[in-house]
Amino acid sequence: MGYERAAIRTEVRVKPKRAETLRQNLNAVADALGNVLVDAFHYLALFAIGGVTVWSAVAAFFAMVAKGHAAIDDILLLFIYLELGAMVGIYFKTNHMPVRFLIYVAMTALTRMLIGDVSAHHQPDMSVVLGAGAILLLALATLVVRFASSKFPSNPTDERRGS
Hints:
This protein is mostly helical and 163 residues long. It contains 4 helices and no strands. Helix content is 85%, strand content 0%.
């Protein structure tokens, strides 16, 4: 009778260990599958964004060719496409989104807007001062981001991929 009680106690102890091992294995499989799905979505989205960027840049270029000349705002538009393409390329290579490039896109877009506004109205007004102030704030934000990234660099390892 004592032997049967010991066997029951051992069996009760073993079952929770098996359940815990099963739970850990299930979590590992779910994590691996989740990582694959997230990576697949990232790559699909990056290809879509990259493709749309190239498509838009080519369409803008051919519109300039058809027009027979390129104005400064057209050239700045091409710079915006270049910066967006660079962001996609950097994300492909490093798996990190370069925030500075978003700021550069915003600065270029504001510059393009200012040039278009002054070209259309031929009279600078308060909107030019506000636009220039916004560009100055974005330039200061770039300075802060660059300073912070040099003083407090991010961890170069990618925890999600385990490297």
